[in-house]
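User: Fold this one for me? It's NAD(P)-binding protein.
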Amino acid sequence: MSSESTIWFINGASRGIGFAVVEKLLATNPSVFVYAGARDPIKASALQQAALKYPGKIAIVKYIAGDVDGNKDIAKVIQEKHSRVDVVLGTAGCGSYLGPAADTPPEVVRTHFETNVIGNLVVFQAMLPLLKASKNPKFIPLSSIGGSLTAFTISMPLGMTAYAMSKAALNVLARRIHFENEWIVCFPLSPGAVETDMAASHREMDNSGVLETLEEQSPEKCATLLVKIVDECTREKDGGEFIDIDGSKISW
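Assistant: Here's what I get for NAD(P)-binding protein.
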């Protein structure tokens, strides 16, 4: 293994999948440094404890989805300390509403797009010079099978109109980044059903009963699978594809 650290930036890192990935990396990878993005770093107690447990391996930075200047500030911090970033993992996401197209308020769609689409666009643009400085750059936003136009979820009565619209748009963004930048590994990754606060709120809002039947995996198990995919992914094998947490390809 190379003695050179692998530099990660993970947004949405204070809880759920994001924090599970941070914890997994710090506990198992001796040559890693993680920039963990959180809306309020001071209140991100789990990250603060991780920083005490793994000194010199993590920096907690303030991240707000879609904040252009804030994302540029994060990039400056990374530039000053490491001059590059090897992996950008976008776990920050919004899933605050369930309802069919007929009932979905436009402002709800705007909110979902701000976090799930524009947030990833802004962080990609801010991290672009740092990614170019990496020998093996990877930009991987978390999507959802709900964003597929052809997979089985499209016909389910889940009312995920706003969420699915934003994830489909995110898939387009990731695919465009792949085709426009031949030097990077980029693809949307679906983590599947995971025991998170968002999943719990979706179950509460779901009137169809479908979500109650889904078997959810723990964030820790998801993180193990996710880190393996990121470690082993290549542009030739995965670039521009829609990848499931088991490594298979999802139809667009």
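One thing worth pointing out: The longest helix spans residues 106-132.
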